[in-house]
Design goal:
Layout: H1 3-26, H2 30-42, H3 48-64, H4 68-81, H5 93-106, H6 151-183, H7 187-224
């Protein structure tokens, strides 16, 4: 086989191997993911972007196999090739934290800032007097409103308090599920906890909306409800 044919075969194999690695990672088959990338590690692609993607996916798979130091080395290689590289969506927060800590090592040092020049003292000016406020109009006595039934406003207010309490409980459970998603070591567990958190948050928002509507209904019944006998 000629040299040109070997180069063309390598260029065609790189995208296919990366696609196979992505599919294996999403299927949580991390050993197959590493095996799919092994040929690209032995013969790296000529394109720097493909080499960077190879190291990113190898780092993701090695982290899920609990080879954290190996994953960190692959992330370092990827960011050396492309400092603006980003991880795929829904990556575990622990993996993102490791990746960003490696990125920080590649960030250039910020130049020292020159000290600010001293500001010139402003000339003292006499304070301007504010115009006097107009005298308030004397309060007018209004007729006493008719006594209205308090039963329906109280029922609506009680229902509002009940739904607000339900929303509070659901919101606390949503926050707890979100915290659990950040603490998970594996992608599947993190995604499941995040989905549970989103469902509880939706329930909390619905409960808060019902509580607000009930509170508004209680106010309307208090001011415009039927007059008690």
């Amino acid at each position: 086989m000629s040299l040109a044919a070997v180069v063309m075969a390598t260029l065609a194999a790189a995208p296919a191997a990366l696609d196979e690695a992505r599919a294996a990672y999403e299927a949580l088959d991390f050993d197959r993911c590493v095996a799919a990338l092994a040929p690209l590690m032995a013969e790296p692609p000529s394109d720097s972007a493909e080499r960077a993607q190879t190291h990113v996916w190898m780092g993701l798979c090695e982290h899920q196999r609990r080879h954290v130091a190996t994953a960190e080395r692959h992330f370092d290689e990827a960011l050396s090739l492309d400092p603006a590289l980003e991880l795929p969506p829904h990556t575990s927060p622990k993996v993102v934290a490791l990746f960003e800590s490696v990125r920080a090592l590649h960030a250039p040092a910020a130049p020292a800032k020159a000290p600010p020049e001293p500001a010139l003292a402003a000339e003292a000016r006499p304070a301007e007097r504010a115009p006097p406020l107009p005298a308030a109009a004397p309060p007018t006595l209004s007729s006493r409103p008719a006594a209205r039934s308090q039963l329906w406003p109280r029922l609506a207010l009680g229902f509002s308090a009940l739904t607000a309490s339900t929303g509070l409980v659901l919101g606390l459970l949503a926050n707890q599920a979100e915290t659990e998603s950040f603490a998970q070591h594996f992608q599947s567990e993190s995604l499941a906890a995040a989905a549970r958190s989103r469902g509880l948050a939706v329930g909390a928002n619905v409960a808060y909306g019902v509580a607000a509507a009930s509170l508004a209904a209680a106010a309307l019944l208090y001011f415009f409800g039927p007059v008690s006998d």
